[in-house]
């Protein structure tokens, strides 16, 4: 039974989400501020967090940063939930490593669908491809352990970033459009937009590239999409 942590200071919203998750046979954890949420993430090891951006004390942004910076919990899938509707806030959330993003007021049915989608993506990222390891120009990937290193240093990636990297590295030199990337990484019935694909790739580059303006792993093919570098 997947365990979902709800982090929001609005208790009515927490109870609404919890009720619907429990109806979908999820186990539910609740936190009403950022500090309590971090403690619970470390001790209870949830499978996914629904994180409100605006929290008292430690903000949702700071919680997301802390999770992604800690190797022990950095692979936690995060759906960011907020009252803000500004596109800038959405991009900030994705660039910090959130796997998905919803604004209040929200459709409970859609949120449940997104929870299932993000959990499935996280589980898919942990499935080993046919080959176990990949190496190219300082980038080392162990598909079985989901361990990534660049020039000998470990890199902490979110489930979405990990699945993106797996996908590209399994098909070096092949160019994919944003829609093809969505189909292969996020799957059918997804809520991701082509613009969000760009944000996730920018976030991935910031983690693995020495110079994000001159990437050597994930390359932009102008007017078409992206590809992993050609391996000779």
Written description of the protein model:
The chain has 232 residues and is of the alpha/beta class. It has two domains: 3-125, Response regulator (Rossmann fold, 3-Layer(aba) Sandwich); 133-228, Arc Repressor Mutant, subunit A, CATH 1.10.10. The protein contains eight helices and twelve strands. It has helices at residues 11-23, 34-44, 60-69, 87-95, 108-125, 159-170, 178-186, 194-208; strands at residues 3-7, 27-31, 48-52, 78-82, 100-103, 133-136, 139-142, 147-150, 153-155, 176-177, 218-221, 225-228. A five-stranded parallel beta sheet has the order 2-1-3-4-5, with helices on both faces. Helix 6 (159-170) packs across helix 7 (178-186) and helix 6 (159-170) crosses helix 8 (194-208). It is globular. The relative contact order is 0.11. The model has no long low-confidence stretch (mean pLDDT 89).
